[in-house]
């Protein structure tokens, strides 16, 4: 199977090819109207899009090419993907999967330098990379939201957390070629990869296409409980060291880069989460869907038993085997499709500000311009917090939910810390969920008691809540959510800029925060400083 690109690839040709491909997809949609498109033609278009991603992933290009031009070529893939979303009936699923393939391709490409100097000169290049990562996340999120909204809130998205392999399609050489003469195994794998990439309906997403989500050693140690059949490839000596049953793919990946201290030559490795909000959306959707599916099972069972001749005692016994899953105290009150909004744009020129003068109201109007503001996504609250410039040149938290900026006076400013912040957040929650809802009622308040009498008890609690790092992905997700608030609640974490994970009569333990997600690392640091600066000293400082 020859899937290599016959046209020479470049940073100029990729946007042109993607524009042409988008036009073909749009023509297919237009010509079919409300009918399902021709399957062969649709798969051909998917194959071309996937092949282009594979080829571009392996393309290095000229090292002198500006970052903006490279990223513009990557952004051009959004156009055919967006056109795919218009295909009926499963266009949004195809668009979401192609966005995941695009994320994999970008992660594995090395056209952009992964090492940047420790200076202000790195701010703009890194901001460009972060903007693309945010655009990837927002694009995937938009398709997932559409699927969720049209799926009776029962979709669990098993195909999101899985591997989306993207390799260069122009090489027919296997990584263990001496055991694979004539590349037969490579050919077989390539065919399967393309078949998986060209899936057009959810029913074709089989476990072979990666619905499972875990790794396993190729040759498990004797006595291990996992009974996983050995993959046929493992019979080839030295071919693989680990058997990938399935990974969680780009939805859990991190874009890693290094900041180099040019004086010492030392490198600080950092990372930006690739699809963090999309990942959280799926986890949230699963919690809601799990409860809804349990309710549906019980309703079906009750309906069937109502027509059965069984005695009431036996009916009760049967229903007792069904699991009752309690509703999430916060997510059950939210419309996920409404709260997961796109990341606000920033850094662009504002036409409204250009026409303003130098009066006090005009200065405030310009200082609170949304293009100059910083938006921080709160993972535990599933909402954006907006920070505007204050008179001192720093940032201050705005009290308005879904703030559009351009304020005329300083009434937007949250002036008090601690109690004021807690009241503010509780007010936002009640505006969303109704009266009586507080941080404590939805599980984001402090533990009671926070202070334990002995180090041993504190250590056991810390291990139970925050250090379940050897479990599976589900355990790690729970561990991460516990770290949003620590043992003293979300307000404490926000005001102190650190997470209290241990507290006993003779000491305490803290760790870094993970509740906020900004457009860039600098935005997160500035917002964190703005929140901690207004806090006066307390017993937990």
From TrEMBL:
Origin species: Cytospora mali (Apple Valsa canker fungus)
Protein name (record): Uncharacterized protein
Domain of life: Eukaryota
């Amino acid at each position: 199977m020859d899937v290599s690109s016959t046209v020479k690839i470049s940073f100029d040709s990729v946007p042109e090819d993607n524009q042409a491909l988008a036009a073909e997809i749009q023509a297919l949609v237009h010509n079919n109207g409300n009918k399902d498109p021709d399957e062969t033609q649709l798969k051909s278009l998917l194959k071309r899009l996937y092949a282009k991603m594979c080829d571009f992933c392996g393309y290095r290009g000229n090292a002198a090419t500006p970052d903006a031009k490279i990223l513009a070529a990557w952004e051009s893939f959004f156009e055919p993907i967006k056109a795919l979303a218009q295909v009926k009936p499963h266009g949004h699923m195809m668009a979401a999967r192609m966005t995941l393939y695009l994320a994999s391709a970008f992660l594995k490409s090395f056209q952009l330098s992964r090492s940047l100097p420790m200076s202000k000169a790195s701010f703009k290049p890194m901001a460009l990379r972060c903007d693309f990562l945010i655009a990837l996340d927002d694009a995937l999120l938009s398709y997932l939201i559409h699927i969720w909204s049209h799926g009776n809130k029962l979709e669990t998205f098993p195909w999101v957390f899985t591997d989306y392999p993207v390799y260069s399609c122009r090489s027919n050489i296997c990584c263990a070629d001496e055991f694979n003469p004539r590349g037969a195994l490579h050919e077989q794998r390539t065919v399967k990869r393309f078949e998986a990439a060209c899936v057009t309906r959810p029913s074709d997403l089989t476990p072979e296409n990666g619905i499972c989500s875990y790794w396993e050693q190729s040759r498990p140690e004797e006595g291990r409980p996992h009974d996983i059949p050995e993959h046929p490839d493992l019979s080839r000596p030295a071919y693989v060291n680990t058997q990938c049953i399935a990974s969680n793919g780009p939805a859990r990946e991190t874009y890693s880069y290094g900041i180099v201290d040019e004086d010492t030559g030392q490198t600080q490795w950092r990372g930006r989460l690739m699809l963090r909000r999309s990942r959280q959306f799926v986890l949230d959707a699963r919690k809601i869907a799990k409860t809804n599916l349990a309710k549906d099972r019980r309703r079906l069972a009750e309906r069937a038993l109502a027509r059965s001749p069984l005695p009431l005692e036996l009916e009760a016994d049967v229903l007792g085997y069904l699991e009752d899953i309690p509703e999430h105290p916060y997510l059950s009150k939210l419309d996920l499709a409404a709260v997961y909004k796109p990341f606000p744009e920033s850094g662009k020129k504002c036409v409204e500000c250009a026409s303003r003068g130098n009066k006090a109201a005009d200065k405030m109007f310009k200082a609170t311009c949304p293009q100059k503001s910083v938006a921080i996504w709160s993972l535990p609250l599933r909402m954006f917090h907006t920070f505007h410039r204050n008179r001192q040149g720093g940032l201050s938290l705005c009290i308005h939910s879904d703030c559009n900026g351009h304020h005329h006076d300083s009434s937007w400013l949250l002036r008090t810390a601690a109690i004021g912040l807690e009241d503010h957040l509780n007010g936002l929650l009640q505006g969303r969920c109704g009266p009586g809802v507080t941080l404590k009622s939805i599980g984001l308040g402090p533990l009671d008691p926070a202070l334990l009498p002995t180090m041993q008890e504190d250590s056991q609690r810390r291990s139970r809540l925050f250090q379940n790092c050897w479990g599976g992905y589900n355990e790690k997700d729970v561990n991460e959510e516990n770290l949003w608030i620590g043992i003293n609640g979300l307000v404490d974490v926000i005001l102190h800029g650190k997470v209290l994970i241990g507290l006993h009569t003779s000491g305490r333990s803290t760790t870094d925060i993970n509740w906020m997600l900004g457009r860039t690392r600098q935005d997160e640091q500035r917002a964190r400083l703005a929140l901690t600066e207004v806090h006066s000293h307390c017993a937990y400082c």
